[in-house]
Design brief:
It is built from 7 helices and 8 strands; from the N terminus they run H-H-E-H-E-E-E-E-H-E-H-H-E-H-E. By secondary structure, the chain is α/β, with parallel strands linked by helices. The protein has one domain: Rossmann fold. An 8-stranded mixed β-sheet has the order 3-4-2-1-5-6-8-7, with helices on both faces. Strand 3 (about 90-95) and strand 4 (about 100-110) form a beta hairpin.
């Protein structure tokens, strides 16, 4: 990214954010599974300035406390999606250890269909973490709207599972599905399951089509332990570089243009 990024102690940061969700078993379980991915995302983000604005799509209210404490960001906007009204509600979390409360207005946004309820060129930083794989119809709508509401030079952070990771390739060769999370949801909530998992090339293509220059693209193992012997075998039999073989993609795009390719040929029929 060619600029300084947020520095912090990982164990301290994870304990800190868990303090906001001690009474929420689902959130605590999520943080246990996603903690490594969450903190790896945080350390890719440059420190904030008072005037800078951040947008987090599909927020679980876990990143905002971290951005405030370690990144000095104060002006944070969050969205999620739910059926019906209201269009906005106050969402707050309180740290049981420190007594600190983080309260933010949360906007109800269907990122595949809605025009985002924000003015053009509003945000300096946007986070789209573990979201794009859940979209069922039109991920480029979301990325084009992000382009519209972000400032020129603004940074967009995308994280998503890597369907061509070493783990996925090994699973496929053993006759198993390659997905990080391909299971159907017994609760009937379609939004919870992964609709499509992506390759690093897919994410790069989508970012470029949406007017973002790829500033950082890696794939790192945050869900599974590395099988060193299989990695060695892949070194000899695959042209995919090692830094793109991890099980989760971490991508950063910088907005450089508002000229968009609405339907990239490799992603849309």
């Amino acid at each position: 990214i060619n600029e300084a990024t947020i520095k912090f102690d990982h164990a301290e940061a994870l304990d800190y954010v868990k303090g906001f969700f001690g009474n929420d078993a689902n959130a605590t379980s999520y943080l246990t599974r996603h903690g490594k991915r969450l903190l790896r995302t945080l350390e890719l983000i440059p420190p904030g300035k008072p005037e800078q604005r951040v947008l987090e799509l599909s927020s679980y209210m876990q990143m905002p406390p971290l951005l405030k404490r370690y990144g000095n960001y104060e002006n944070i906007t969050v969205t999620n999606w739910w059926e019906g009204e209201p269009k906005e509600k106050l969402q707050s979390v309180t740290n049981a250890q420190t007594g600190e409360t983080v309260a933010l207005p949360m906007r109800n946004v269907d990122v595949e269909r809605d025009r985002f309820p924000f003015a053009d060129n509003t945000f300096d930083v946007a986070l789209c973490c573990e979201l794009i794989e859940h979209l069922q119809e039109d991920p480029m709508h979301m990325l084009c709207e992000l382009n519209r509401v972000m400032k020129f030079g603004g940074l967009l952070f995308i994280t998503t599972p890597n369907v061509v990771s070493a783990f996925s390739i090994q699973e496929s060769l053993a006759g198993s599905p390659p997905y990080i999370y391909g299971a159907y949801n017994r609760g009937g909530n379609r939004a919870d399951r992964h609709s499509r998992e992506y390759t690093p090339r897919d994410i790069s293509t989508a970012l470029e089509a949406a007017g973002f220059k790829v500033a950082h693209l890696t794939a790192e193992d945050v869900w599974h332990d590395v099988d060193e012997s299989f990695q060695s075998w892949l070194e000899k039999h695959s042209s995919l570089p090692t830094y793109l073989r991890g099980d989760n993609i971490f991508a950063v795009g910088r907005k450089l243009t508002d000229k968009l390719e609405r339907y990239p040929a490799s992603l849309y029929d």
